[in-house]
Amino acid sequence: MWKDNARCAVGLSFDFDAESLWMGVYKQDYPAVLARGEYGARAGLPRILKILKRQEVKATFFVPGYTAEKYPLLIRQIDNDGHEIAHHGYKHENPIKYSLEEEREIIEKGIDILKAITGYAPVGYRLPSGVHTPHTLNLLLEYGFKYESSMVADDLPYMLKIDDSGKQILEIPFSWELDDAPHFMFSHKPYRTGMSSPSKVYEIWSAEFEVCYQEGGYYGLTCHPQVIGRRHRAQMLEKLIAYIKSFPDVWIGRHMDIATHILETKSLD
After folding, report:
1. What is the largest CA-CA distance in the chain?
2. Are 145 and 123 in contact (CB under 8 A)?
């Protein structure tokens, strides 16, 4: 199923939300809270990019348009390092509150901003707030997206059916267990302790990879620069990547490459 007959595939992804997370999801725009998102840009992202370069792996960065507007040099650096830039809304909004035309505008705006920086339109999409509208998937097909990565219905990539039309789009799933935010991110509202030790999370993440490798499956890790980018957590992330790389026949690919391989080889049929 996997490229070059690899035993399993690994997709490393980072949601570079920066301040947009707090403005969009939490509706908090005062400086002390926005600074948490700014940390992701100032300290977390550069640390992550250095790790990926040392480990010689490529990843996918889902970026809201607002973040790209505010930090175009960082987006250009991500792109220049060979990582994928994918779509993550505009300001981490919940599209269920918007009309069809408003949702279309959000998607178009994100495409235009990212394309102006990277030179290419994104082919992947991750819901900024984890909620589809009745129009979302049709809009993604209309704008030429190859895949989306927001659902949790399987361990493996799968074709996501769109209503009763017979149309479908490739889903590259994520999981909350393999997301850094539930483990690490503290929030007053809704309240989350979010202060797990890296050793605990490493145990969960490495164990999940070991079983994935045994099954010949897909392992998708989702992280956020403002969360995983803290020194002690970034150190754990690099340890995990090195551990994954120590196994033979593991394909670590960008989501766009995984999607292209699946769609071209029809390996899900």
Report:
1. 50
2. yes
What DSSP assignment string belongs to 101-148? HHHHHHHHHHHHHHHHHHSS---EE--SSS---TTHHHHHHHTT--EE
Tokens of 53: 């370069």
What is the tens place of the pLDDT at every residue in 42-53?
999 999 999 999
At residue 188 the predicted structure's pLDDT band, cuts being 50, 70 and 90, is low
* H or E segment to which residue 252 belongs: strand 250-252
Whether 1 is in a domain gets the answer: no
Residue 49 resides in a domain:
yes
- DSSP H or E segment with residue 226: helix 225-228
Reported pTM = 0.95
Number of folded domains in the chain? 1
Tell me how far apart the alpha carbons of residues 117 and 266 are, in angstroms, rounded to a whole number.
32
Cα gap 33→194, rounded to integer Å: 16
Assign residue 82 the CATH number of its domain.
3.20.20.370
Residue 137 lies in a domain: yes
Supply the range of the domain harboring residue 254.
6-265
For residue 54, give the nearest of 249, 237, 250, 191 by alpha carbon: 237
Tokens for 259? 């999607």
